[in-house]
Design goal:
single chain, 462 residues, alpha+beta, 14 helices, 30% helix, binds adenosine-5'-triphosphate
């Protein structure tokens, strides 16, 4: 269904995640702000605030660990955003990286022709106002600019629309410097830019975003096997992150959907409040990219298999391509919960809670003194200092303790440590769990170890 048409705004949405609530929480708590807001905002660009950058770093860290540390034959790369313009001719992006565009002559709305109902397209009727639509025209999504002082055709340069090409052009360097043997992979996280026609829906589709891509180089003929293996691994990854698995599904690209380079492609889709949408793509890119770079650069990009009589071939590539910023939106939606925690009509009868996995939570533990006075603040600060080395921490001494717990729930902090008068007497503190709201007393000396164990054995309750 079209992104324009099935976004819902729900007034009877108690207990449910909606895009409006998530966008508003993200701003209120400093996850995500509109870019250049004081100037009215910049479409398609967003800024990540203090909690947002922590969450983004943790998601990137989890992916990086999964891809590089847990796989002996996958190494990392950080290639430049600006690449030689021939790269994009070779990759096919100059010619093929287009979306079909239509405009409404009356209300001036702009649509991707593949995202509005076919009836509207056939009748050239605007889905918003019924006005007349223009003919469909192709629109290249690459941002084009100039490098150097002269703005002529020789100085054209593109902002990369995907991180993958930086990997392909370095594949020989990496084989030589790191003595990689096929099969092996190269992982990269970085910014990508696309001049998207429709950028509504918060950070779902933006002009500037980040990707987490891993390109796996395999012998032709083994590609289908590796393609199946990577689909399995990417599915298991989301399971490990604690994502609601009934909110994930596969979508195989039909013949009309396949990108120009792909032999086969599956998307992992997530059930966002907007509906089912692509989260990550797993693609069999064949030898298309390395073949084209061979042709355009004149360099021999064949792999030489020294263990097999120096057999030469252009490897096939299996790609796993996930949006980092789209993953962040998914994690926010997945974690979002509203729970009735007291009789209706009482103060604070509902709480909003982000049920992040503790490995992803921007703040792992908040330390709260019951009172500021009588040395409790100092003791709490001392505990926080001790925990800082191992955990991301917060300290809050403002307002009633119940309110402070709610603030931490809303930020997704899985653990709170409360320091009270008993702490001064017997050296114990209260450990409060975000999900169950259960509170237990723990000797201070055992706190760090207990947290470590709770994080390692964490299971989401709902
Ligand atoms: P679409 O067809 O929806 O435009 P795509 O299939 O072209 O997207 P890919 O090129 O496969 O997307 O990109 C890989 C991943 O990068 C996507 O699964 C998505 O998570 C992320 N991504 C792509 N475009 C954007 C964007 N404009 N904003 C945010 N994330 C994006």
């Amino acid at each position: 269904m079209s992104e324009q048409l099935n976004e819902y705004s729900d007034d009877s949405s108690a207990g449910k995640a909606t895009m409006e609530k998530i966008t508003s929480l993200a701003k209120r708590r400093g996850f995500v702000f509109q870019s250049s807001e004081i100037y009215g905002g910049q479409n398609g660009a967003w800024d990540y605030g203090p909690l947002g950058i922590e969450l983004k770093n943790r998601i990137a860290g989890a992916w990086w660990k999964e891809m590089t540390r847990l796989h002996d034959n996958i190494v990392g790369l950080d290639a430049a955003i600006l690449m030689h313009p021939r790269t994009w001719e070779a990759s096919g992006h100059v010619e093929n990286f287009t979306d079909p565009l239509v405009d409404c002559k009356k209300c001036k709305s702009r649509f991707r022709a593949d995202q509005i109902p076919q009836e509207n397209l056939a009748a050239k009727k605007c889905p918003d106002c019924g006005g007349e639509l223009t003919d469909t025209r192709k629109f290249n999504l690459m941002f084009k600019t100039h490098i150097g002082p002269a703005e002529d055709t020789a100085s054209i340069i593109y902002l990369r629309p995907e991180t993958a090409q930086g990997i392909y052009v370095n594949y020989k360097n990496i084989i030589q410097s790191n003595r990689m043997k096929i099969p092996f992979g190269i992982a990269q996280i970085g910014k990508a830019f696309r001049n998207e026609i429709v950028t509504k829906n918060f950070i779902f589709r933006t002009c500037e975003f980040e990707q987490m891509e891993m390109q796996y180089f395999v012998k032709p003929g083994t590609d289908e096997e590796w393609f199946a293996e990577w689909r399995k691994q990417r599915w298991a990854y989301y399971e490990k992150l604690g994502v609601k698995m009934d909110h994930l599904r596969w979508h195989q690209h039909g013949p009309g959907e396949l990108a120009h380079y792909a032999k086969d492609a599956y998307d992992i889709e997530y059930l966002f409040p907007l509906g089912w949408r692509e989260l990550e793509g797993v693609h069999n890119r064949t030898d298309y990219d390395l073949g084209r770079h061979t042709q355009y650069s004149g360099k021999d990009l064949q792999y030489i298999d020294q263990d097999n009589n120096n057999e030469r071939y252009i490897p096939y590539i299996i790609e796993t391509s996930a949006g980092l910023t789209r993953n962040l939106l998914m994690i926010l939606c997945d974690a979002y919960d509203e729970e009735q925690v007291a009789e209706k009509g009482n103060d604070d009868d509902w709480r909003t809670v982000l049920r992040f996995h503790p490995d992803l939570a921007p703040i792992t533990v908040a330390v709260l003194p019951l009172m500021k006075k009588d040395g409790l603040a100092e003791l709490a600060q001392d505990i926080r200092t001790e925990l800082k080395e191992d955990y991301s921490t917060d300290y809050d001494q403002a307002g009633a303790i119940g309110r402070r717990y709610r603030r931490q729930d809303e930020a997704g902090t899985p653990f709170c440590v409360t320091v009270d008068y008993q702490s001064k007497e017997d050296g114990t503190v209260t450990l409060r769990f975000r999900d169950s709201m259960e509170q237990i007393r723990v000797p201070r000396a055992e706190l760090a170890g207990r947290l470590r164990q709770e994080i390692r054995t964490y299971k989401r309750m709902k």
